[in-house]
Amino acid sequence: MKEEIIMAGFGGQGVLSMGKILAYAALLDGKEVTWMPSYGPEQRGGTANVTVILSDNEISSPILDEYDTAVILNQQSLDKFERTVKPGGTLIYDPYGIHHKPTRTDINIIPVNAMEATFELGNPKTYNMLLLGALIKARGIVSVEDVMKGLKKTLPERHHHLLGDNEKAIRRGMELVG
Amino acid sequence: MSNNGTKGDVVLMKGNEAIAHAAVRYGCDGYFGYPITPQSEVLETLEALMPWETTGMVVLQAESELASINMVYAGAATGKAVFTSSSSPGISLMQEGISYIAAGELPALIVNVMRGGPGLGTIHPSQSDYFQATKGGGHGDYHLIVLAPKSVQEMADFVGLGFDLAFKYRTPAMILVDGMVGQMMEKVVLPPQRPRRTDEEVLEQCPWAATGDADKRGRNNIITTLELDSHVMEKNNERFQETYRRIEANEVRYEEYMTDDAEWLMVAFGSMARISQAAIHTAREAGIKVGLLRPITLWPFPYERISELSRQVKGILVPEMNAGQMIEDVRLATEGRVPVKHCGRMGGIIPSPSEVLTALNSLIEVK
């Protein structure tokens, strides 16, 4: 098993955290993992992306030309990464703020209305967890149980009262993929 | 910084964080540093670990890089295991101090998490300080032992290795790594916690150290790099050179990948070795017999092994994140036997596996 994933959006949307939680979950499942961030000097705004590779075997390059799966949170990232999904691969994106939809026909395109759903759930900070839920449902790469364990490791203890909200968001994200 | 998830002894963390954890566990006595991207997590992690409350290790944010390296110079002079870390522009500021530490024949560890230069440059990964690290950097005839990790695991492992070599040969060692390995997260097994050496152990193991124990040693140790008599200074230099010859004879380290049947060779270090490995997988699928030699010590450099391989292969590609620096050492090793070509990006851009593959194909076509 090897899954090469790019996650991309605006800085502050939680792209790097989403990747980190996924990497932890895979680590707990005994997989080899790399998490390679790319972002500018800005603390918020600007674009941020992270390459996450999960594999049963040793991972060579932590940066890639093309990906099995892309999780896309804004237009700039869609413009940049749509063409980098391998034929037959998966593109998950949030249509919120997207004016030019993906056009490729040789990949599996999954729109996930995460921004809409996060306001329904009432905690916009769990936005990235909706997309993570959608990703694990669509790709079956890690279990929701391992994601929750990964989240517990990643989230500082003072925020552990938010684990429930996050799990709700992950499960809602899974439902959105259907 | 990340919290550390564990499964057994396995944790997930950034390369920079691994440096900090490994230093505390080595029984390091002190860290002196000044923040700069992309290595600020070294200082941040050390501050969060608060080793002054457990092992007694000192962690100090100095007022500048100049102050940091001179604190390292002073700490090393007393026989303590001390280190600093910075990124390219900060390492440039430290060069005078590094030359003094080399001339003082003192053990110390310096970590350079390289970013794109020259000048203040970018915050993104680069390997453009290869010349500076391996050919001197500061003034005078000296060398650093230069270790080039390719993974978070090696970031942790090379802290102990760097200190051990520095103390064995009484010379400063450097971990030279690009910002990519500093910033990326991977699984790592951390070394076990060792106690810091006691004053008695330092006295015994470092008979040269300036510890203020003249009564126990029967003499005063004075560490100085000033010598106004040129004849004596030449003798000092001869002693340094003798040390460097011993290091060259005993400490060359490298790793080979698929070189047994290789008709083509790549030579790459750090992140570029891993990116090259991905290109090699694709090339091998297309029937191109290509292998990789990864220097682990950039100084001493594996001239001999590359020389041997240059008799086996038809051409050598040197992928680097710079304008072509290590390629000069590869050319020295091959003595013109085969074509040696550079491929790379500059200023903080990371070449992709396909760019390396394209360069390999053009090397093969030209040949």
Question: What do you see in this structure?
Answer:
The complex is a heterodimer of chains A (178) and B (367). With 178 residues, chain A is α/β, with parallel strands linked by helices. Chain A has helices at 15-28, 75-81, 114-121, 127-139, 144-154, 163-177; strands at residues 2-10, 32-39, 47-55, 67-72, 85-93, 108-111. Chain A is globular. The mean pLDDT of chain A is 94. In chain B, the strands form 3 sheets. Chain B has a 7-stranded mixed sheet with strand order 4-3-5-6-8-7-13, with helices on both faces. A 5-stranded mixed sheet of chain B has the order 10-12-11-14-15, with helices on both faces. Chain B is globular. With 367 residues, chain B is of the alpha/beta class. Chain B has helices at 15-26, 40-49, 65-77, 88-93, 95-103, 130-134, 152-169, 179-183, 199-205, 214-217, 230-250, 271-285, 303-310, 326-334, 353-366, and strands spanning 6-7, 10-14, 30-33, 58-61, 82-86, 109-114, 145-147, 173-178, 185-189, 254-257, 264-267, 290-295, 297-299, 315-320, 340-344. Chain B folds into 2 domains: 6-189, Thiamin diphosphate (ThDP)-binding fold, Pyr/PP domains (Rossmann fold), CATH 3.40.50.970; 255-366, 3-Layer(aba) Sandwich (Rossmann fold), CATH 3.40.50. Residues 1-8 of chain B have low confidence and may be disordered. Chain A binds chain B through residues 20, 23-24, 27-28, 30, 32-38, 40-41, 60-65, 150, 153-156, and chain B through 2-7, 10, 12, 37, 123-124, 180, 183-187, 271, 274-275, 277-279, 281, 350, 352-354.
Key features of this structure:
A: 178 residues, Pyruvate-ferredoxin Oxidoreductase, domain 3, six-stranded mixed β-sheet, 25% strand, globular, B: Rossmann fold, Rossmann fold, seven-stranded mixed β-sheet
